[in-house]
Amino acid sequence: MTTSVVSIVYVNDAPAAARFYGDLLGMSPSFETPGYITFDLGPGADLAVWSGQFEDLSADVPRTSEVCLASNDGPDEINAIFKQWQSKGVTILQEPHDAGFGLTFLAADPDGNRIRVAPRG
C-alpha cells in the first residue's frame, strides 16, 4: 500500500493561502481546486490548505498545532530563512532560539496557523 502524510492547514481563502505558502516554500501547488490546494513536499509528504471547513477563522484564536518545516542545513540556514521571512513581512511569533533540539523559530500565516522552522532530527 502506498501512503502519504498530508498536513492540512485550515484557512479562510485557499488561493490566497496557497500564494503565501508557495512564496515561503518557493514552489507551485501540485493540485488545485477552488477550496483545496496541495503542495508536494517530497516522497510521502504533502501540505494542503483547505477553506470552507470553518467559517471566519481568526488569527486571534490560539492554535495548538504547527506545520514544521525542517532544514538539513543547520543554524545558518535557519537564520537566513528567518531574515528572509521577516523581510517579506511574515508574522514572527518567536525569534530564533535554541529549544534543546537546535535553533528554531515560530511564525504564523495570515489566518494565525503556526509555522515552525527547525532542524531535521
Written overview of the protein:
- With 121 residues, the protein is of the alpha/beta class.
- It is 21% helix and 40% strand.
- It is built from two helices and eight strands, in the order βαββββαβββ.
- A four-stranded mixed β-sheet has the order 1-4-3-2. The chain has a four-stranded mixed β-sheet with strand order 5-8-7-6, with helices on one face.
- Strand 3 (36-42) and strand 4 (45-51) form a beta hairpin.
- The protein is globular.
- The model has no long low-confidence stretch (mean pLDDT 91).
- Beta strand count: 8
Classify the helix fraction into a percent range. 10-25%
Order of helices and strands: EHEEEEHEEE
Number of helices: 2
Using the CA coordinates, give the radius of gyration.
14 Å
Proportion of residues in extended strands: 35-45%
**Secondary structure category:** alpha/beta
The rough form would be described as: globular
Strand order of the largest sheet: 1-4-3-2
* Main sheet record: 4 strands, mixed
Mean pLDDT value:
91
